[in-house]
């Protein structure tokens, strides 16, 4: 190493500088990029009956889609004229190919579906939710003008920002020209709405008559009757029985908004929302900054107010700052521990130089692997700080020990030679932590995607740390450490000497009866762990404060949009009166992430103030309680956005989902109501939804075939004329400044706005006679039609619920026992989905990872020492430390979730690492004595205590989770802290006892390697 001193220094500097450059280029995102195996198909078939829609559109689509290779689940929801089908594939499936296969299957059945049926196929990925949301409000401009401003000016401006996948505009309305004939004039002239629409359509034409070559020029002959203004529309001739009249003489022509059945507000004012969606690999923070810069230069009218109702970069930045603070604070605390034990400022400086160099080099690895700064990679760096510092501490402590041993000698010992002695234990300890992450490569799902990113970050950090600690650090120590540092360590040795004497005294007593002491310690840990396990709450994803949340709502089925809006105004009052709320936006008839929506449902996004305030769960619970008591008739569900996003991406947005299957619709509906009522009585189970969604009422018009035939009409002809009168007919289009504006001909509001007025509508028979609808049809009201849901082609209803103040595991235990006690009909089958199903799958996967990690640690130990007694003793110590993890989680009120399970796996590696340092001190080639074991423990006491303290203190900021967005790693950090707090004493105390017990049966024969 001395020969290559310069090349090692240069390589370390180059890698570090390259890492710093890579850190500036790495994109910043909220979560790691994951290919979610889900495709959603939205079907629009116009205004159709739900049952008919399910029969002639949804079911054929389901049958075709179910045959796509790789489809594992298929779930559909059918409403009036619309349907949504979600396809689930296996994790790891080629999703671009699956998307093409889905589009191909739909194209195959398109000719057999009702005319006008349209499909929208999209992959489920985080880009369905906006990275930033803007609201436009104005005191002077109406919704049409605001929508035009957003569509024509802001969308082109923002769509060109690098990383923007799309810009969606919600709210307002498109401009139209409305032609509203006078019914009395139409009757007097013997005209109908069809006559008016036909006249308008025929008058506005641009047609080519052919090409003419004349006098060396080639001309295109155009018959150009293009209409471009309301005045030209008014001049269109309409032929009546008594002559010709102009459209302006029989109709009112004016600009009007297109009919919309949605409503959008922001902070209590009618608004237009602009949602900016990012590409999967975009830098969220940089994207938001560039959008804000573009908005400053947009040149919007002075009276237009632009507000940000959602900004994901705030959560990303908050999480990044939390991890940054945790790294800095952890590094400072590690330096304090180092100084307390070794009293050398040079050692602190060397450690301080090593840590940023290792983290920078880790950024280079992330860039090469196409990863980003996100909550998992940053969390991996924060969790790796203690291990990186530990590598430095172990090496420096060993070098200091050699310096202390050489006090009084004429020549200072070589630091490079001393470093060579630690090469094998340092490699083994690093590999002990690395191997626990290897099984993560074989699990899938959200858990695999999230923690694989964390694992890659930690493995990269540990690999670089090993190289730097083994080669760069000894070179620095060889030039910088002196015997004065050894004298300083001697002064600090009073504390460690006292610990050593106490350790030796207790160890000698314990070695007198090793079986009894080891048995008592094991019994206490097993009993404590079992007690904690029995009372330990469980969940899926760790809870964190995202700074905002969603309120999904649904009014009574079929309620008019104006009445729903009235209810929601009361909700807005409750939201505004909550002091923690900074702003909010509301969608009615639409949802933030898209999806099938009726006019009586939608969502709010509530953005909370930053800084000191109540926890988000308390704010959500207060607003939920007030809505439920003060706004009757409104069904709500609340969730933080990322929870809702991950739920939508994995098709399980609610924690609790009781799935009921059956062929008898009445039995199924009755069972759903029964289950919803029963689980709603469970303490902590809130926002219960029985799954019986009703699309709304309908006006039933039954045409008498005989009377219609006498008038020369068919039911289809009646439907067409009626549709033109009620919804209007897009008769033509006007081209105004490169913008196409529809011209809609329809009756006045007072003739089409009431059900009882439909019977008086005029129809034209085949022979030109004008008759009323009531003369050939009966008009009545049809009760609300329920949405039709199916899973894997079978009818099913999902009863869902959320939790408040209760963990998922205990809640589901009560739900299952409650549902089992209902004795539902024999034809109804029960299954459980939701986040609970995801939790169970993830726990199974992580338990497999834990077992595999233990086996890999066992293999590593056996390879290093070739003694069964060493391997078995270390595994027993590691397994007993899991009881400490469960007790730590229980005592701190931390749920056992996927983050805590990952922490438990990491404890196995870190405990093995500490054990390797102890085992490396034992003599080789002969049977161990109790004196050998105590001497090894005493020699390793200082570095093991230092390593454990440093790991605990560096993880403490993460465990406290004080900053916004820092909660994702809090259970992981808590589990590791609890494991090491008990595990380090176990390595020093219990492991030598177990090794002493194993000597009688596992001593190697003389001459055999050990």
Fold and architecture overview:
The protein is an alpha+beta fold and 1010 residues long. Helix content is 53%, strand content 20%. The chain contains 30 helices and 31 strands. The strands form 8 sheets. Strands 1, 2, 3, 4, 21, 22, 29, 30 and 31 form a 9-stranded antiparallel beta sheet that branches. The longest helix has 36 residues.
Cα Rg: 36 Å
- Gross morphology: elongated
The biggest beta sheet is recorded as: 9 strands, antiparallel
Helical amount: 40-55%
| Structural class by helix and strand composition | alpha+beta
Give the tally of β-strands.
Answer: 31
Given the structure, what is the number of helices? 30
- Approximate strand percentage: 15-25%
Quickly describe the structure:
This protein is of the alpha+beta class and 1010 residues long.
Give the topology, please.
Blueprint: H1 5-25, E1 38-44, H2 50-66, E2 71-78, E3 82-89, H3 95-109, E4 118-123, E5 132-138, H4 143-159, E6 164-170, E7 175-181, H5 183-189, H6 193-203, E8 205-214, E9 217-225, H7 230-234, E10 237-240, E11 243-246, H8 247-250, E12 251-257, E13 263-266, E14 269-270, E15 272-278, H9 284-296, E16 304-311, H10 312-342, H11 345-368, H12 375-405, H13 415-421, H14 423-435, H15 445-480, H16 483-512, H17 514-535, E17 548-555, H18 561-576, E18 581-588, E19 601-608, H19 616-630, E20 634-640, H20 641-649, E21 656-661, H21 665-679, E22 685-689, E23 698-703, H22 705-710, H23 715-726, E24 729-736, E25 739-745, H24 749-752, E26 762-764, E27 770-772, E28 777-782, E29 788-791, E30 794-803, H25 808-820, E31 829-833, H26 834-865, H27 868-891, H28 898-919, H29 930-960, H30 970-1002
Parallel strand pairs: 7-25
Antiparallel strand pairs: 1-3, 1-4, 2-3, 2-29, 5-15, 5-16, 6-15, 7-12, 8-9, 10-11, 13-14, 13-18, 17-19, 17-20, 18-19, 21-30, 21-31, 22-30, 23-28, 24-25, 26-27, 29-30
Helix pairs in contact: 1-11, 1-15, 2-3, 10-11, 10-12, 10-29, 11-12, 11-15, 12-15, 12-16, 12-29, 13-15, 14-15, 14-26, 14-28, 16-29, 17-27, 17-30, 18-19, 26-27, 26-28, 27-28, 27-30, 28-29, 28-30, 29-30
């Amino acid at each position: 190493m001395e020969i290559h001193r310069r090349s090692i220094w240069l390589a370390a500097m180059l890698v570090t500088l390259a890492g710093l450059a890579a850190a500036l280029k790495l994109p910043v995102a909220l979560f790691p990029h994951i290919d979610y195996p889900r495709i959603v198909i939205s079907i629009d078939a116009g205004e159709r009956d739900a049952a008919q829609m399910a029969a002639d559109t949804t079911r054929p689509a389901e049958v075709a889609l179910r045959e796509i290779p790789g489809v594992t689940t298929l779930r559909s929801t059918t409403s009036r004229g619309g349907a949504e089908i979600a396809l689930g594939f296996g994790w790891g499936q080629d999703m671009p190919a699956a998307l093409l296969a889905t589009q191909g299957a739909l194209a195959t059945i398109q000719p057999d579906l009702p005319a006008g049926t349209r499909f929208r196929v999209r992959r489920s990925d985080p880009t369905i939710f906006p990275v930033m949301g803007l609201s436009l409000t104005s005191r002077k401009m109406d919704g049409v003008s605001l929508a035009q401003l957003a569509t024509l000016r802001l969308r082109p401006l923002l769509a060109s920002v690098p990383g923007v996948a799309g810009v969606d505009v919600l709210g307002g309305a498109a401009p139209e020209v409305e032609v509203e004939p006078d019914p009395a004039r139409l009757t007097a002239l013997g005209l109908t709405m069809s006559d008016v629409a036909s006249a308008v359509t025929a008058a506005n034409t641009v047609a080519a008559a052919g090409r003419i070559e004349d006098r060396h020029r080639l001309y295109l002959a155009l018959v150009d009757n293009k209409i471009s203004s309301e005045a030209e529309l008014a001049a269109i001739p309409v032929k009546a029985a008594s002559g010709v009249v102009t459209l302006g003489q029989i109709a009112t022509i004016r600009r009007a908004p297109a009919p919309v059945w949605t409503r959008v507000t922001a902070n209590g004012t009618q608004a237009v929302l602009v949602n900016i969606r990012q590409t999967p690999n975009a830098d969220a923070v940089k994207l938001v900054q560039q959008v804000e810069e573009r908005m400053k230069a947009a040149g919007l009218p002075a009276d237009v107010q632009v507000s940000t109702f959602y900004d994901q970069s705030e959560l990303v930045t908050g999480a990044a700052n939390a991890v940054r603070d945790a790294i800095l604070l952890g590094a400072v605390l590690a330096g304090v521990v180092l100084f307390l034990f070794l009293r050398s400022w040079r050692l602190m400086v060397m450690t301080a130089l090593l840590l940023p160099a290792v983290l920078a080099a880790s950024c280079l690895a992330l860039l090469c692997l196409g990863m980003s700064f996100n909550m998992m990679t940053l969390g991996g760096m924060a969790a790796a700080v203690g291990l990186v510092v530990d590598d430095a501490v172990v090496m420096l402590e060993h070098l200091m020990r050699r310096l202390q041993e050489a006090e009084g000698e004429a020549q200072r010992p070589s630091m490079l030679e001393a470093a060579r002695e630690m090469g094998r234990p340092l490699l083994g300890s690093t590999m002990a932590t690395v191997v626990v992450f290897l099984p993560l490569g074989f699990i899938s799902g959200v858990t695999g995607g999230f923690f694989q990113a964390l694992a890659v970050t930690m493995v990269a950090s540990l690999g670089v740390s090993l190289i730097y600690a083994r080669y760069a650090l000894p070179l620095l120590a060889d030039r910088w450490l002196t015997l004065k540092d050894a004298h300083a360590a001697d002064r600090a040795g009073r504390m460690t000497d006292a610990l050593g004497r106490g350790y030796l005294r207790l160890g000698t007593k314990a070695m007198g009866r090793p079986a009894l002491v080891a048995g008592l310690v094991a019994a206490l840990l097993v009993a404590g762990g079992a007690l904690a396990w029995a009372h330990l709450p469980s969940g899926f994803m760790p809870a964190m404060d995202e700074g905002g949340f969603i309120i999904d709502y649904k009014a009574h089925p079929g309620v008019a949009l104006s009445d729903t809006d009235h209810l929601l105004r009361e909700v807005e009052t409750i939201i505004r009166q909550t002091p923690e709320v900074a702003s909010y936006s509301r969608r009615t008839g639409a949802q933030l992430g898209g999806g099938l929506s009726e006019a009586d449902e939608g969502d709010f996004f509530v953005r909370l103030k930053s800084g000191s305030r109540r926890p988000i769960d308390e704010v959500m619970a207060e607003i939920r309680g007030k809505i439920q008591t003060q706004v009757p008739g409104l069904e709500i569900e609340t969730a933080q956005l990322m929870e809702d996003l991950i739920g939508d991406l994995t098709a399980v947005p609610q924690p609790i989902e009781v799935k009921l299957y059956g062929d008898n619709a009445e039995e199924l509906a009755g069972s759903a109501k029964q289950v919803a009522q029963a689980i709603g009585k469970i303490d902590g189970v809130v926002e219960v939804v029985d799954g019986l969604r009703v699309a709304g009422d309908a006006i039933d018009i039954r045409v008498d075939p005989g009377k219609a035939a006498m008038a020369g009409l068919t039911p289809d002809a009646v439907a067409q004329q009626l549709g033109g009168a009620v919804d209007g007919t897009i008769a033509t289009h006007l081209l105004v400044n490169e913008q196409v504006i529809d011209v809609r001909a329809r009756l006045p509001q007072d003739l089409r706005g009431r059900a009882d007025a439909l019977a008086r509508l005029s129809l034209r028979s085949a022979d030109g006679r004008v008759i009323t609808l009531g003369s050939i049809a009966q008009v009545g009201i049809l009760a609300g039609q329920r949405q039709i849901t199916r899973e894997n082609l079978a009818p099913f209803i999902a009863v869902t619920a959320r939790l408040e103040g209760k963990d998922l595991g205990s809640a589901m235990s009560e739900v299952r026992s409650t549902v089992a006690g209902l004795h539902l009909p024999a034809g109804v089958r029960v299954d459980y989905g939701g986040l609970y199903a995801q939790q169970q799958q993830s726990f199974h996967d992580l338990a497999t990872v834990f077992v595999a990690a233990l086996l890999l640690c066992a293999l590593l130990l056996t390879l290093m020492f070739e003694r069964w007694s060493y391997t078995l003793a270390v595994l027993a110590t590691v397994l007993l430390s899991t009881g400490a993890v469960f007790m730590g989680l229980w005592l701190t009120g931390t749920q056992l979730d996927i983050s805590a399970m990952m922490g438990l796996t990491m404890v196995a590696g870190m405990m093995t690492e500490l054990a390797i340092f102890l085992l490396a001190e034992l003599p080789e080639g002969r049977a161990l004595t109790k004196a050998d074991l105590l001497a090894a423990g005493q020699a390793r006491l200082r570095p093991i205590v230092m390593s454990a303290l440093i790991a605990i203190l560096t993880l403490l900021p993460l465990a406290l989770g004080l900053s916004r967005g820092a909660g994702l790693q809090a259970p992981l950090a808590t589990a590791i802290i609890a494991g090491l707090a008990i595990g380090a004493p176990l390595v020093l105390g219990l492991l030598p006892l177990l090794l002493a017990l194993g000597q009688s049966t596992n001593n190697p024969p003389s001459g055999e390697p050990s």
